[in-house]
Predict the 3D structure of the following.
Amino acid sequence: MPIRQFRRLMLVSAFIGMPALAQGWQIPKPAPGLMPNPAAGKPLYERNCASCHGVDLKGTDKGPPFLHRVYVPSHHADAAFQLAVKNGVRAHHWKFGDMAPVKGVVPDEVAHITAYVRARQCQAGIE
Ligand code: HEC
């Protein structure tokens, strides 16, 4: 394929591909009016996430730490938590492998867990 045609194809697929991707990614939403609460998030985090991300949020041999600049809100928005729990995560930042979806944790609970992680990041001076 001539390079010009190829470039045009790439441009077109970028335009078509991105909205399609965005539509496929339905971000689970917590109930409107829910007040995400770090205290409610702590036990949920410990039950569902700590085995890989660490009780101290510093990671384990199965998953990355959340007390890390990679997971500040500007780089991983709260939606990333909802998507990670619902769809799992394909390994991309680290060498731990993929994260499987976490079953049985509803969006309200994810919002509490995220609030807990944000509170701990804040305490650790990672913002
Ligand atoms: C079985 C291990 C395991 C469990 C349990 C687990 N995770 Fe993960 N998680 C991982 C791994 C591994 C990654 C890193 C993937 C990468 O980027 O390389 C990850 C990455 C993430 C990310 C980053 C997503 C992104 O977009 O880069 C978020 C957010 C996350 N996990 C949230 C959670 C939450 C919330 C829970 C609990 C409800 C949880 N995880 C439970 C293993 C786990």
In short: The mean pLDDT is 88. The domain at 29-123 is CATH 1.10.760.10 (Cytochrome Bc1 Complex; Chain D, domain 2).
